Amino acid sequence: MTGPSTRPLTAADEHLLRVATLGNLNWAEDRFTMRDVTDRPEFAHYTRLEPGRGDLGFVAEDGDRAVGVVWALFLPNEDRGYGFVDPLTPELSLWVHADDRGRGVGRHLLQRLKTEAARRGISSISLSVERGNVARHLYESEGFQAVPGRESDGVLVWTP
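Structure (tokenized):
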């Protein structure tokens, strides 16, 4: 990928994670609002990066504009995400701005996160992708596989 630069995601990027989470929730149509993202616990936990628990991520920027972000959170058992597998498996989220899709930004970010996860010794990464979301093809092409028994939830896992 040429063009956007990539930098580590930080806890200060909470607004970006809110925008990205809303974009992910509304991938097919407007179903949720920013208030849903901030007020509903099942969405809000995706907007808080906590490096102290091992969370990681990257932002793709074109100039001063974020064009994409990937992040993986170690959510606890009592605050499970949609793609939760276990507390030792971080749950990945990936968002690319609509104007920048189809340029390889998502693949670049996903590969960057997988590389960093492997470097840190993370043994697996999970995610959830809704039926009909074209992003599933990207995840499968990058080695994510359906979790047996969770196919209807769209839960996929990657192991290095």
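The two ends are 22 Å apart (CA to CA). The chain has a mean pLDDT of 95.
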